[in-house]
Amino acid sequence: MTRQHVLHVDNLSIQLPEGADRSHAIQGISLDVHKGEILCVIGESGSGKSVLSAAIMGDYAKGLRRGSGRIDFLGEDICALDEAALRKLRGNRIAMIFQEPMAALNPAIRIGHQVEEIFEIHAPELCADQRRERMLGLLASTHLPDPPRIADSYPHQLSGGQCQRVVIAMALAMNPDLLIADEPTTALDVTTQAQVLKLVRELRGRGQHGILFITHDFGVVAEIADRIAVMEGGRLVEIGERDQVLNAPNHPYTRKLIAAVPSLNPELHAPSPDGELALRIEHLTKTYRVGNQQVAALKDVSLNLPRGKTLAIVGESGSGKSTLVKAAIRLIESDSGHVWVGETDFLALQGNHLARNRRRFQMIFQDPYGSLNPRHRVGDIIARAAQLRGVDARQAWQEAGDLLEQVGLKRDALKRKPRQFSGGQRQRIGIARALAMRPEVLIADESVSALDVSVQKQVLELLASLQQQLDLSILFITHDLRVAAQISDHIAVMRQGEVVEYGTAQQVLGSPRHAYTQTLLAAAPGASASPDAKVCA
Fold first, then answer.
1. d(CA 342, CA 354)
2. To which H or E segment does residue 513 belong?
3. Under a CB-based contact definition with an 8 Å cutoff, are residues 370 and 315 in contact?
4. What local confidence, expressed as pLDDT, does residue 294 receive?
5. Radius of gyration for the alpha carbons in the chain, expressed in angstroms and rounded
């Protein structure tokens, strides 16, 4: 039996402004979304995924314009609608679930009122009591605990997963025919991500909605997709049933993307020589006062990082990963404990001694663009780090060029600004800046979570290569167990401020002892999908 299509995109092309790196943001796109199915659209940054979703909403970025094609939504051509008709459509019959829930919610308005505003706009015939009743029902339908309390809360009083459930509830308010989910799980930790994906599958199971799910995560695709559309450079290069695309991809680009997906099976690493430790964290504690309560963010944490090796710290949001790093490098002061870098107790240093030793720790940040000054040339950014180490300006500039070549960029990048580079290239620049300080311990804080799988693979391979060349010791913070499996020699699993499991990557991921570690592994996207899917390994 032929399923009813909710959306039919026919030969759609969106033109880019003159001077862009290509003529079209998307070109010749044709696809359908059926009622009761999830179509996952996957591709790297710049492939046209987000432009496609914006076009379906009738919302073109400045400088873009439709060249040709039709977007048929239940028999209505979206491209032919005026702005007034589009406003009636958006949030009503077509709804969007955004990537960053905190950015999608107004921080100054209580949750309940934000949900009720949708009824005020699209169902003005409802009275206040009816709006509240439907709002509470929506919050309950997305499995939020204690809907009246949630309704009376502000966004900052909820967790990231709860905020994303609120955004989903808002999208469902008018029972739309089409849901567009734009990277809705990218910013979430693995267990929260699993809960949101389960909710998306429930929505599909109700059979009321067609779901267009945009992502760059093949684990997520393996978990929820009915069909997959693969985009490259604005073109649709492959579309088909999930298992066919994942297990027998036809296009070389699809095969390249799948080959770049990190496996949950850890790489084998040589054992560390005894006694060679780059970093020792001993009995570190940190307590915050929240109102009249004491909250233990770190509870007697002890960890070792062998020299020239990588220790991955994994856990959910709020587990203490970031607090541990901040306390170790003294961005915040701990209550007690020791942090030994070689033979130096970093927590005991004061004044000039502390300033001189800070270069021994260097950070690679999660957002490569936000961590680079957009007004400065790349060469100045890197050379400044070398000058802080005591190198004169001329030598610092020379070192900056050498470091760019070492991370796989050309020397002519010295005179360009961060905006002129891709996300992966900017992350390489961030790595070069960190290396300019000649650190003993490199700290990577979710440094590949925002990158596409192929770019992610390149950065991980670069870090592994630099580690071998420079004998670097790396503390790698991540919520992605697949990434931890590929890069780490040892893994520490944190939960509520404690290390609940520590060992080699093979021990922790292959034979986890703690129930929490087992829960994290079971929640990894793709782990519960079809056993034939290659990305589930």
1. 15
2. none
3. no
4. 85
5. 25
Q: Residue 406 and residue 513: Cα distance in Å, rounded? A: 40
Using CA atoms, how far apart are residues 117 and 110, in angstroms rounded to an integer? 11
Q: What does the H/E/C string look like for 135-182?
A: HHHHHHHCCCCCHHHHHCCCHHHCCHHHHHHHHHHHHHCCCCCEEEEE
Residues whose CB is less than 8 angstroms from the CB of residue 422 and which lie 6 or more positions away in sequence, other chains included? 45, 46, 455
Distance, CA of 131 to CA of 125 (rounded, Å): 10
Residue 312: beta bridge partners?
476, 491
Cα–Cα dist 28/296, whole Å: 55
Q: Letter for the amino acid at 282?
A: E
The per-residue pLDDT for range 79-104, each reduced to its tens digit, is: 999 999 998 899 899 999 887 777 78
Q: Which of 131, 130, 105, 103 is nearest to 117 (CA)?
A: 131
Q: pLDDT category, 207, cuts 50, 70, 90?
A: confident
Residue 10 has pLDDT above 70, yes or no: yes
* Numbers of helices and strands, H then E, in the chain: 20, 20
Cβ atoms 279, 252 nearer than 8 A? no
Overall size of the chain counted in residues: 537
Distance CA 219, CA 80 (A): 37
Instruction: With residue 482 as reference, give the H or E element that holds it.
Output: helix 481-487
pLDDT band at 47 (very low <50, low <70, confident <90, very high): confident
What confidence score (pLDDT) does residue 273 get? 55
| Nearest-angstrom CA–CA distance, 389 and 433 | 12
CATH class assigned to 277-342+440-536 = alpha beta
Q: What does the pLDDT read at residue 414?
A: 93
Q: What residue type is assigned to position 63 of the chain?
A: G
Q: Where are the domains of the chain?
A: 277-342+440-536
Cβ-proximal residues to 424 (8 Å cutoff; 6+ apart), any chain: 451, 452, 455, 458, 459
Q: What Cα–Cα distance (Å) separates residue 4 from each residue in 36, 75, 177, 378, 507?
A: 9, 11, 11, 52, 49
Integer Cα distance of 320 and 19 in angstroms: 46
The one-letter amino acid at 474: I
Q: What is the mean pLDDT of the chain?
A: 88
402-438 pLDDT, tens digit per residue, is 999 998 888 988 998 888 887 778 888 999 999 999 9
Residues 6+ apart with CB under 8 A from 129: none
Task: Give the C-alpha separation, 239 to 260, whole Å.
Answer: 19
Q: Minimal CA–CA distance to 171: which of 146, 203, 147, 144? A: 203
Identify the bridge partners of residue 466 per DSSP, sorted by sequence position: none
Contacts 24+ apart (CB under 8 A), 409-413: 413/378, 413/379
- DSSP states along 36-78: T-EEEEE--TTSSHHHHHHHHTT-PPTT-EEEEEEEEETTEEG
In whole angstroms, give the CA distance from residue 425 to residue 447. Answer: 13
Give the per-residue pLDDT at 197: 86
Neighbours of 402 (CB within 10 A): 14
Is 354 in contact with 347 (CB distance < 8 Å)? no
Q: Residue 509: what are its φ and ψ, rounded to 5°? A: -90, -30
